[in-house]
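fwd from M.: "can u put these together and see what the complex looks like"

so here's what she sent:
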Amino acid sequence: GENVEQHPSTLSVQEGDSAVIKCTYSDSASNYFPWYKQELGKGPQLIIDIRSNVGEKKDQRIAVTLNKTAKHFSLHITETQPEDSAVYFCAAPSIGSGDKLTFGTGTRLAVRP
Amino acid sequence: EPEVTQTPSHQVTQMGQEVILRCVPISNHLYFYWYRQILGQKVEFLVSFYNNEISEKSEIFDDQFSVERPDGSNFTLKIRSTKLEDSAMYFCASSEEKLGSGSPLHFGNGTRLTVT
């Protein structure tokens, strides 16, 4: 099955700075890598995802990069704002086992005003 | 924008009691899931459901758990005899296509289950 590791577990940045969260995965057959944002008391909300046929995807202040050779992918948030403060989870599917998303352990991001 | 809705938002039950958690997935979605999150920990897969049957389940999803799609809109998770360690947030999710195709998973806001 898939094993997803995520770092760092906590991240504190000054408003306006960039934040980078990194994940590694184990299943080389994985082909889809979503990132979720979870605010207090709410469910995970998909913020960006990338498929294995591209190396980078950007959506306004958020970008994801994928290195298939090294089996890692990263979330980049530029010009951070206080409302970016949340827990962020990466995930990867276990292709061999079907319909299961394996999540990383989460990164608590705090943006200091 | 369509969303996954879950009820109740919070359920308190006594150990040994049965609970049913309810979900209404997004209407055109065909794949349904339950995940859980113990306080402060990561989100863990419980079960996936497609075409009226379970397609995959985790080790957590033992004989005390069952899922059902009783009609065209609801998707339920039943825990037959709750244990203290079942206390967690339970998230329902749905997707339009199979996960490996890149179809995104959409989550509800969860039901907080507290077993006393």
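replying to her w this: Chain A touches chain B at residues 31-32, 34, 36, 41-46, 49, 51, 89, 91, 93, 95, 97-106 (CB under 8 Å).
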